[in-house]
Design goal:
By secondary structure, this protein is an alpha+beta fold. The protein folds into three domains: 39-276 and 423-487, FAD/NAD(P)-binding domain; 279-419, Alpha-Beta Complex (Flavocytochrome C3, Chain A, domain 1), CATH 3.90.700.10; 512-594, Sufe protein. Chain: A. The protein is 31% helix and 22% strand. It is built from 17 helices and 23 strands. The strands form five sheets. Strands 1, 2, 6, 7, 8, 9, 18 and 19 form an eight-stranded mixed beta sheet that branches. Strands 11, 12, 13, 14, 15 and 16 form a six-stranded antiparallel beta sheet that branches. Strands 3-5-4 form a three-stranded antiparallel beta sheet. Helix 13 (362-369) packs across helix 14. The longest helix is centred in the C-terminal third of the chain and has 21 residues, at 464-484. The protein is globular. Its EC number is 1.3.99.33. This is Urocanate reductase. One of its GO terms (cellular component) is membrane. Keywords: FAD, Flavoprotein, Oxidoreductase, Signal.
């Protein structure tokens, strides 16, 4: 078995994107550009996508005894999962019971069906709810803290599980999943663009892909799992289904372009609910930052530009988005106090990003927002009385009412809707087998996560995405492994990473250790460069506040690329442009100083 891939140079990293294919054999055009090399590899299972669903599937497949290759389009793992803010919905769990929360699988099913306007695939929703508690146990078992439980919009019971300290679940989950892949020796081939599903004898038998140099790669496998995510970052694609949301900002990462959906469709996979595209109601518009449902779930409220509350903040995302868009200016402010800030670590991330407005008093906050102070004061007084009475006479809110807003300072974030989740996608059954347009199983092809459709219907409840990727990611890994191993294991043959060329002595900088700081996505990034024998010998970050999974990708690809090039004239990491720019700006300043 080949050694684990480790030190990646930018040129050596392999690329994934998910793209296209067909059930019928596709012939290459005669004018096709000749690739540099053509190489073939093999495994029991190939997984397209290293987001939450793909990595979960990889862990389960490996634990079932299968060899796994994971292809990832971007230069980092996590996909949209790393951006998840709230938590994971589950019912009848140990954390719920320890907190005295009474919930049931049936209530979870009912809430999800109601939220999805009853067009969800009931069999998938039932499987999701029935296996959600086991998903919590599994996550706890692999080192993930999901012991905190809060209320969420559209849920009649508190069932959104998250880290106890209130951290955004996505970043923590991706770190746990990537560590578990590393512990099991599962390699992710970064920057590896899948271009086609291979079909032989009416079964999917592998994936064609390209690396960053244009080399064509063939990955033969007994089973393929498509976990390439949705299409919320592909405006042309989502606007073709929903012209009314053309021009909306998106909360999605750059790689969410629907490649896996189109690839599967071209080999005959059925699609479902493609026009069902969710906007998240509370998105900060200058940073595309989602303000999690859980912020409202612990007691925050929404006011309009007049300082007046206008809605039940715990309504489903589609209704709440519409209510915000109906306000003057088509925006709102989410309001919370120091008590809520103290109880939710994710709020600190918002503060660090500079999107939170603070007022030492309610009057000061109102003045800064240019909102009528008397109206704002009356709004909070009415709300605090509703919390005390456990009755919201104005809008009928009955969850997320455990804390009043009375502890100064007070805070606000200006929000409006943004494209968030694409509920439509590949049609699957409860075994995560992909179905064709006649309802028959496409042999050897599985799918999980946002690339699929049917689970969420017309509207996804907050907390159900992480539940979806975990429950169905686990199922895909198990089912694909069972199918792939039915006739015995396949020897794993992986691509080799090219050796990094030595560039020592090609530059002429003054020896020393240099440090510079530049502005990243979430705050300052401090970079230290060591010059030895006239060349860049080492690059490292001594301090940063970037999203860890994204910055890990920057460190793994950009830092070696700088050393190899002996220059800051290298490409930024796709999907982590601001973090990359901060690093490159620091290095440029350092090299100018070291000349």
């Amino acid at each position: 078995m080949l050694k684990k891939l480790c030190a990646f140079s930018l040129a050596a990293l392999l690329v994934l994107s998910g793209c296209s294919s067909q059930v019928k054999q596709q012939s290459q055009p005669e004018t096709a550009e000749v690739p540099q090399k053509q190489e073939s590899y093999k495994s029991d299972i190939v997984i397209i996508g290293a987001g939450g669903a793909g990595m979960t599937a990889a862990i389960e497949a490996k634990d079932a005894g299968a060899n796994v290759i994971v292809l990832e389009k971007m230069a980092y793992a996590g996909g949209n999962t790393v951006r998840a803010k709230g938590g994971l919905n589950a019912s009848e769990t140990k954390p719920q019971k320890s907190l005295g929360i009474e919930d049931s699988v049936q209530t979870f099913i009912d809430d999800t069906m109601k939220g999805g306007k009853e067009i969800n695939d009931l069999s998938l929703v039932t499987y999701l709810a029935q296996n959600s508690s086991a998903a919590i146990d599994w996550l706890l078992g692999i080192g993930m803290d999901v012991n905190g439980v809060v209320a969420a919009a559209g849920a009649s019971k508190p069932r959104m599980h998250r880290p106890v300290d209130g951290s955004s679940i996505g970043n923590v989950l991706v770190s746990v999943l990537t560590k578990n892949l590393e512990d099991r020796g599962i390699d992710i081939l970064y920057q590896t663009e899948a271009t086609e599903l291979i079909v032989e004898n009416n079964a999917v038998t592998g994936v064609k892909a390209k690396d960053a140099k244009g080399n064509e790669l063939t990955f033969n496998a007994d089973a393929v799992i498509v976990a390439a995510g949705g299409f919320g970052a592909n405006e042309e694609m989502y606007a073709s289904y929903r012209p009314d949301i053309k021009g909306f900002i998106t909360t999605n990462h750059a790689g969410a372009t629907g490649d896996g959906i189109r690839m599967s469709e071209k080999i005959g996979a059925a699609l479902v609910d493609m026009e069902q595209i969710q906007t998240h109601p509370t998105v900060e518009q200058t940073t595309n930052e989602v303000i999690s449902d859980s912020v409202r779930g612990i007691g925050a409220i929404l006011v309009n530009e007049k300082g007046v509350r206008f809605t039940n903040e715990m309504l489903t995302r589609d209704v709440l988005s519409a209510n915000i868009l109906a306000q003057p200016g088509k925006y709102a402010y989410i309001i919370f106090d120091q008590n809520l800030r103290n109880n939710m670590k994710a709020i600190e991330e918002m503060v660090e990003k500079g999107i939170v407005t603070e007022g030492k008093t309610l009057e000061e906050l109102s003045a800064t927002l240019k909102v009528d102070a008397a109206a704002m004061t009356k709004t909070l007084a009415t709300w605090n009385k509703a919390v005390a009475d456990k009755k919201d006479a104005e809008f009928g809110r009955d969850t997320g009412m455990d804390a009043s807003l009375e502890m100064a300072p007070y805070y606000a974030v200006k929000v409006a809707p943004g494209v968030h989740h694409t509920m439509g996608g590949i049609k699957i059954n409860t075994n995560t087998e992909v179905l064709d347009t006649k309802g028959a199983v496409i042999k050897g092809l599985y799918a999980a996560g946002e690339v699929t459709g049917g689970v969420h219907g017309a509207n996804r409840l907050g907390g159900n995405a992480v539940a979806d990727i975990t429950v169905f990611g686990r199922q895909a890994g198990k089912q694909a492994a069972q199918f792939a191993l039915a006739n015995g294991a396949t020897e794993l043959v992986m691509p080799k990473v090219e050796s990094k060329k030595s560039t020592a002595g090609t530059a002429s900088y003054k020896d020393g250790v240099y440090t510079k700081t530049a502005k990243g996505n979430n705050g300052d990034v401090t970079i230290e460069v060591t010059i030895k024998d006239g060349s860049i010998a080492d690059v490292k970050a001594t301090e940063h506040k970037e999203t860890q999974a994204l910055f890990d990708a920057v460190q793994k690809s950009l830092f070696p690329a700088i050393i190899e090039a002996q220059s800051a004239d290298v490409d930024a990491v796709a999907g982590a442009t601001k973090s990359s720019d901060a690093v490159l700006n620091c290095v440029k300043e350092i090299l100018n100083e070291a000349k």
